[in-house]
Amino acid sequence: MVSSKPQRWSPLTCLGKTNLSPSGLIQLEADVGEVETLVRTNCELRYEGSGPLPKPVVDTTSSSAVDSTTCRYSETWTERDVNLSCHITTHRIVLLDEEEGIGGSIPYPLIQTAEGQGGPSFRSPKASYKIELNTLAWGELLLVFRGGESHSYSTSGKDRDAALNAIHRAMKRKAWEDRQRQAVKEAARPSKTIAARKVGVDAIITKNELRLKENANLADSAFGGGGSNNNTKTGILASTNNRKKGSQEDIDAFMREATPLLKVIHKYTRTIERERKAAAALANNNSHSNAVVTKEHKDAEKLASMLENMGMTSALSEKQAGSTYHKQLARQLVDFLRHNDKLTKAGGMMTLTDVYCLFNRARGTNMISPDDLLKALDLMKELQLGMSKRAFKSGVLVIQDDAYDDEIMAKKLADLASSSMKQKENNQPSPDVGGITVIDVSRKLKISAILANEQLQSAEEMGHLCRDSTIEGIRYFPNLFQGAASF
User: Torsion angle, CA of 433/439/443/444, rounded to 10 degrees?
Assistant: First the structure.
């Protein structure tokens, strides 16, 4: 729900606009290879200039009614923003007020200098740790670190130093200039220069062959390159400083190669989505093309599985995220389950085992522990993300959409039981004796047997089904006594 009260007029709201996901995570600019490298909490943003910053201009040309009616700003200037989370990426510094869902960013090209200030002194033993940013657009801004959620003075110093180092590394690498460098490389690619001299089908075939070779070389240089150089080194051990410097250079080299590689991956991902939609439309319009559609669908699913195994989910480690790790994890999990309606297709509920396996598969090598998953689930209700953890009486734990309704599922199961009885009355060929089992529900609703069993028991407790226990197992039938009670 969007609040009708005006937004505060403060340094945060005067910064560059930051788009957030439905769960409140920063939407990184994947097309330019932006990567989130560090997160710290309990920060302040101050404006060190004289007087207030210019009030943000409201976009009156927007077609959204929300933008034109709710994006109003207070008439009172607030000189500092408190309790912010500071996110360092390869392209910008992002500051978020998670309670109000407000975000602002400071792009590195607009930062002239970033210097550390504050810390203990003889006159002020507990002076706050700060980073002074001299910017082209907003003048002097001050980032103050308050020690994260622990409010520890020693932690605030470590947070300041970690953030300052991450900012200096990003400003030195200048990842935002990669787009220009990639444009020059793209123009000089053999697939463009050689294929330009040919025409017709021959040009298309040559271009595709060269493009496949270039993509293969790109993946090899990103994931396997540099090994031959290491083999030429002598066996003399380098000093600790040289090893650290070499490791950082390897990371920077990998990130430079990863930018075009991610573009290739996103291109294939869009191709998969396009092929899936086209295959579904073709299957509906032409019944004679089922074999072709099935083959294309299998190819698309195989490619999608390969991409998932490579770990396509952007993830921060516990060291990078600091005290916000489990909150970030909860938001990532919600966005992951919302993507392609994974939770909705599963009936609005998934067991923690299924969620754990799917999420870790998408994260690749940066996997989470079961304990981290449980802690993240416990925070979902507090963060109001639209999902929460639920425990059945049997002890089975699931993650459930807050819009999920037990009554609707119970009626759906009752309809399945009723349809099985009608098939038996019409003498349709069936080895069953009517009613539904756990396996029947699992197959029809495409959910696990554990979840099907819990939902059948829940429907029975609500009075929609009744059970028949025999030596062959348990079958559920429509509860005719409930219907007779109304007479």
Answer: 50
pTM of the model: 0.66
Look at strands 111-118 and 129-135 and give their pairing.
Answer: antiparallel
Question: For position 290, what pLDDT does the model report?
Answer: 55
* CA distance to 55, 180, 204, 425, per residue, from 476 (Å): 65, 65, 60, 17
CA-based angle 167:173:176, to the nearest 5?
Answer: 90
Return the DSSP state at 94: E
Pairing state between β 102-107 and 111-118: unpaired
Tokens of 387: 């999902």
**Of 14, 145, 144, 170, which is closest to residue 92 (Cα–Cα)?**
170
- Calpha distance 351→346 (Å, rounded): 10
Q: Are strands 73-77 and 7-9 parallel, antiparallel or unpaired?
A: parallel
Answer with the residue of higher pLDDT: 128 or 220.
128
pLDDT > 60? residue 226: no
Burial annotation 224-255 (CB, 10 A radius, 16+ → b, else e) = eeeeeeeeeeeeeeeeeeeeeeeeeeeeeeeb
pLDDT digits (tens, 9 = 90+) for 266-301: 666 666 666 666 666 666 665 555 555 555 556 555
Determine how many CB atoms are found less than 10 A away from the CB of residue 373: 22
Does 11 or 123 have the greater pLDDT score?
A: 11
Which range has highest mean pLDDT (114-128, 189-203, 272-286, 464-478)? 464-478
Q: Distance of CA 388 to CAs 41, 391, 400, 458, Å? A: 24, 10, 6, 18
The H or E element spanning position 391 is strand 387-391
pLDDT of residue 146 exceeding 70: yes
Amino acid at 184: V
Q: HSE-up of 18 (CA within 13 Å, CB side)? A: 29
pLDDT at 197: 59
More confident residue, 436 or 420: 436
Query: What's the mean pLDDT when you consider all of the chain?
Result: 75
Q: Assign 3-class secondary structure to 323-370.
A: HHHHHHHHHHHHHHHHHHHHHHHCCCEEEHHHHHHHHHHHHCCCCCCH
Which tokens sit at 427?
Answer: 């003498």
Of 372, 370, 378, 444, whose CA–CA distance to 413 is shortest? 444
